Fold this sequence. Notes:
By secondary structure, the protein is mainly alpha-helical. Helices cover 63% and strands 11% of the residues. It is built from five helices and three strands. It has helices at 3-36, 68-88, 96-119, 138-157, 164-175; strands at 42-45, 49-56, 122-128. Strands 1-2-3 form a three-stranded antiparallel sheet. Strand 1 and strand 2 form a beta hairpin. The longest helix has 34 residues, at 3-36. One of its GO terms (molecular function) is aspartic-type endopeptidase activity.
Amino acid sequence: MTQKSNHSKYWGVAVILLILAILIDQGTKYLAVTHLKDQAPFIIWKNVFQLRYLENNGAAFGILQNKQWFFVLGALIITAFVCYFYHKLPFTRRYLPLRVCMVLLVSGALGNVIDRVMHRYVVDFFYFEWIDFPIFNVADIYVVVSCILFLLLIFFYYKEEDFAFLTEQEQKNDNT
């Protein structure tokens, strides 16, 4: 397989997974609006976990209320950075876990951006009553899981030399 077709394969799979993840997020939000809005919470495990509809105008813990432009701009910057880094990574199996993290992160960011642009709020519906955790959604799960996996990969899987290609490319550009 040529290097060019390898690039195309990785980008193609990433776009398909991104679209699929966003569709799952948006589908669950649609179900939440349809079945939970203006309804009593749906108790899954009494005093522990429930589905509770919330229109979130801010971020976790209610911070930055009604600052939709901030979240949209932030998500777009993160997406641009991730796409740049995704392109810079060598297209080998070694970096596949990192690529999965990137797709999850962008899926979560864009899933919530869609809500912010279309509705001016994000639909949240998962609630851990037992620990009074902020209500969240599938896109939030993507972001949190990708960040945790990213940290685990950086600390326990990848070595410093796995990212030497970043400085090597800069050195090649400086020498030309």
